[in-house]
Amino acid sequence: MEDSRETGAPISDIAFTPAVKAVQERKGSRKGYAKMEAKGGWNDIVTDDLAAFIEERDSFYLGTANAEGQPYIQHRGGKPGFLKVLDETTLAFADFKGNRQYITAGNLAENDKAYIFLMDYANRRRIKIWGRARVVEDDPDLMARLVDLDYAAVPEQAIVFTLEAWDVNCPQHITRRYTEAQLADRVDGLKSRIAELEAERDDLRDRLSPTGTERAVSANGVI
């Protein structure tokens, strides 16, 4: 497919092929998406909002396909922000040693079309990024920009992703999930509140306890 920036076609045409548009027409959504396209539609550069979203992610899913179109999805994880923004159309990450199947690398060697799917479960957001990717080996300068030295993993190569289009999905049907760090923050807050309540309880108990000789009220058993 030609680059929409050169042809003037809507950026979303990278996903909205004629076959997709035909289904949209049949299902009744084409008119709405046509209005979206007329207003500018999707974006094809990394905005500040997208960069901030990427910087917070500690994982994403990378989709590729071989020359025959057989798809493959691979999970990639690391420290928050391990997927780096190199410029307004380029993302990259250090590819760590793993099970050594090299399916993604093999797919990209014969079909460079790729797709990144980013999830923020806690805030129920998801971002889809279309583009092209390539494996880069033996580039120490690039690797130095991508590797976090305090992350316990062995980088084997880099994958550089050229962004062509991206879109934000609606939050429907996303079940909230939280990372250990996010849960720790919430638990710490609960622990602090519990400590405050216990301190208030102890203070109230001290103020209500008798300071002189205790008197027993035998009639009702209250002391």
Structure description:
The protein is of the alpha+beta class and 223 residues long. The chain folds into two domains: 43-169, Electron Transport, Fmn-binding Protein, Chain A (Pnp Oxidase, Chain A, Roll); 178-211. Helix content is 34%, strand content 27%. It is built from seven helices and seven strands. Strands 2-1-5-6-7-4-3 form a seven-stranded antiparallel sheet. The termini are far apart. The model is unreliable at 212-219 (pLDDT under 50).
Descriptive keywords:
extended; 2 domains; seven-stranded antiparallel β-sheet; alpha+beta; 223 residues; Pnp Oxidase, Chain A; 7 helices; 7 strands
Helix content: 25-40%
Q: Could you state the CATH homologous superfamily of the largest domain?
A: Electron Transport, Fmn-binding Protein, Chain A
Counting helices, strands and paired strands, the structural category is: alpha+beta
What is the H/E string? Answer: HHHHEEEEHEEHEH
| DSSP helical segment count | 7
Secondary-structure topology with pairs:
Layout: H1 4-7, H2 18-27, H3 30-38, H4 48-56, E1 59-65, E2 71-77, E3 84-87, E4 90-96, H5 103-110, E5 113-120, E6 125-136, H6 140-146, E7 155-169, H7 180-208
Short description:
This protein has 223 residues and is α+β, with helices and mostly antiparallel strands.
